[in-house]
């Protein structure tokens, strides 16, 4: 069973995520599953039927402290096991799938964390551009906000993907899905300044746009640390993370009247429902649109 798990994890890494974090999450879920199966005297994934799997779900529902696992946790684990059994069915030839017709528990969608425009401006305008590393950081975070990029997308960005004359970047996102995202005029001069003042002086044998002081491509962890360090330095007094810039990008576009399908395209979402989590974040905008559109909103009611 362990050999099949390792083969599956290699498949996931090379064909889909290329993310060590994702692979490790899958590994934990599958190891937990194997431990349960062994406790039941089962040593082959082919011997797992629906009843065995339902017993396993009941087992992981109750945590060690007696509390119940969240629906979101169970749903995530089910996603792992579905992917695993699909791999066993298609590539290993195991015919049965104990997850057939098994539905994931309903989960409530968490409202994404985002920053207000004033907070974004404070964050971006407080860099000392006389310091090359701070110029790099401002360029990096400005581009993330300008284009709604994931941190994995910003660290993998190459110079051939940056089109200054036409003001867009070419992004290859999740599932190798390609998208074109424009950026505003002000970033053109910043790009040029960054390349001359920082990149050309430190980059070593790489065409990645964002590099460390040692000239190597930046890591996602480094970007996360730099963002929190700067937020702390300017006294924002809050925990921040790079994905906040992507959430802010989507929220602010929708607040200013952008069509949700355009925002979907810019974010690279396959499903419109994924983009719709941003549409209910601004009650003031909803009220404004309601009062503008409802036929009786401005009608005086006689008493």
TrEMBL record:
Q: Where, subcellularly, is it found?
A: Cytoplasm
| GO CC entries | cytoplasm
Keywords noted in UniProt = Cell cycle, Cell division, Chromosome partition, Cytoplasm, DNA integration, DNA recombination, DNA-binding
- Domain (Tyr recombinase): give its ranges: 110-291
GO term, biological process aspect, one: cell division
Q: Which Gene3D superfamilies match?
A: 1.10.150.130, Intergrase catalytic core
Read off the InterPro entries from this record. CB, DNA_brk_join_enz, Integrase-like_cat_sf, Integrase_catalytic, Integrase_recombinase_N, Integrase_SAM-like_N, Tyrosine_recombinase_XerC/XerD, Tyrosine_recombinase_XerCD
- Catalytic residues, per the record, are 150, 174, 243, 246, 269, 278
What are the Core-binding (CB) domain coordinates in residue numbering?
Answer: 1-89
MF terms from GO for this chain are: DNA binding; tyrosine-based site-specific recombinase activity
The protein's superkingdom reads: Bacteria
Functional description taken from the UniProt entry: Site-specific tyrosine recombinase, which acts by catalyzing the cutting and rejoining of the recombining DNA molecules. The XerC-XerD complex is essential to convert dimers of the bacterial chromosome into monomers to permit their segregation at cell division. It also contributes to the segregational stability of plasmids.
What does the record note on quaternary structure?
Answer: Forms a cyclic heterotetrameric complex composed of two molecules of XerC and two molecules of XerD.
Family statement: Belongs to the 'phage' integrase family. XerC subfamily.
Q: Which PANTHER family match?
A: INTEGRASE_RECOMBINASE PROTEIN MJ0367-RELATED, PHAGE INTEGRASE-RELATED
Name this polypeptide is given: Tyrosine recombinase XerC
Q: What organism, scientifically named, is this protein from? A: Faecalicoccus acidiformans
Q: Which gene encodes it?
A: xerC
């Amino acid at each position: 069973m362990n050999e099949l798990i390792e083969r599956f994890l290699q498949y996931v890494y090379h064909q889909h995520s290329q993310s060590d974090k994702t692979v490790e999450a899958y590994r934990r879920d599958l190891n937990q599953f194997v431990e349960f199966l062994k406790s039941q005297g089962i040593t082959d994934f082919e011997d797992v039927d629906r009843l065995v799997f339902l017993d396993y779900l009941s087992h992981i529902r109750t945590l060690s402290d007696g509390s119940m696992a969240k629906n979101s946790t169970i749903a995530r684990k089910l996603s792992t096991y579905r992917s695993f059994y699909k791999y066993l069915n298609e590539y290993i030839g195991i015919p049965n799938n104990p997850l057939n017709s098994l539905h994931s528990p309903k989960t409530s969608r968490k409202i994404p964390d985002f920053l207000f425009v004033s907070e974004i401006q404070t964050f971006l305008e407080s860099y000392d551009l006389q310091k090359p590393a701070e110029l790099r950081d401002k360029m990096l975070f400005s581009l993330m906000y300008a284009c709604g990029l994931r941190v994995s997308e910003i660290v993998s960005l190459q110079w051939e993907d940056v089109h200054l004359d036409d003001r867009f970047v070419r992004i290859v996102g999740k599932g190798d899905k390609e998208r074109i995202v424009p950026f505003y005029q002000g970033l053109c001069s910043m790009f040029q300044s960054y390349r001359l003042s920082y990149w050309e002086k430190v980059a070593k044998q790489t065409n990645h746009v964002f590099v460390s002081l040692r000239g190597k491509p930046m890591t996602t962890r480094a970007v996360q640390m730099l963002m929190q360090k700067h937020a702390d330095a300017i006294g924002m007094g809050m925990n921040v993370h790079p994905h906040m810039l992507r959430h802010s990008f989507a929220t602010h576009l929708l607040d200013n009247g952008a069509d949700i399908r355009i925002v979907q395209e810019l974010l690279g979402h396959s499903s419109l429902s994924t983009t719709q989590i941003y549409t209910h974040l601004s009650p003031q905008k909803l009220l404004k649109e309601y009062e503008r559109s409802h036929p009786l909103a401005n009608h005086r009611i006689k008493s």
